[in-house]
Amino acid sequence: MSHSSEKWDQLTNEWSASLKKAKIRQAIIDDKMHSFLRGNGCLPTAEELKVVEALWDQHVAARNRTNLFIQAVLENYITTEATR
After folding, report:
1. Contact 75, 13 (CB under 8 A)
2. Cα angle value 16/63/73 (rounded, 5°)
3. Residue closest to 19 by CA, chosen among 68, 71, 62
4. b/e string for 35-66 if b means 16 or more Cβ within 10 A?
5. What is the C-alpha to C-alpha distance for residues 61 and 15, in angstroms, rounded to an integer?
6. Nearest one of 49, 65, 50 to 17, comparing CA atoms
7. What local confidence, expressed as pLDDT, does residue 83 receive?
8. pLDDT score recorded for residue 2
9. DSSP of 23-75, one letter per residue?
């Protein structure tokens, strides 16, 4: 795995974008639920819930890729420092 700053930027941008999408969709569902419970709105649909779950899954996958990159850099650093 390349340990470049470009790779880091790519991974963190993917993670950030996936988090933003998930949070926006989650906020829409939360707003619908809040309105429904106050008596002036409709429940979110099953399809909306599926979409938001898929977005959260994408976010977790992107975060996991970022964490794997961090782990690889850390392992490389530890190995490099141990040989000095």
Report:
1. no
2. 110
3. 62
4. eeeeeeeeebeeeeeebbeebbebbeebbeeb
5. 8
6. 65
7. 75
8. 56
9. HHHHHHHHHHHHHHHTTSS-PPPHHHHHHHHHHHHHHHHHHHHHHHHHHHHHH
User: Residue 80 pLDDT > 90, yes or no?
Assistant: no
Residues 6+ apart with CB under 8 A from 52: 22, 25, 26, 29
Confidence of residue 53 (pLDDT cuts 50, 70, 90): very high
CA distance 29 to 23: 10
Is the pTM of the predicted complex or chain greater than 0.85? no
Tokens 């490099």 appear where? 80
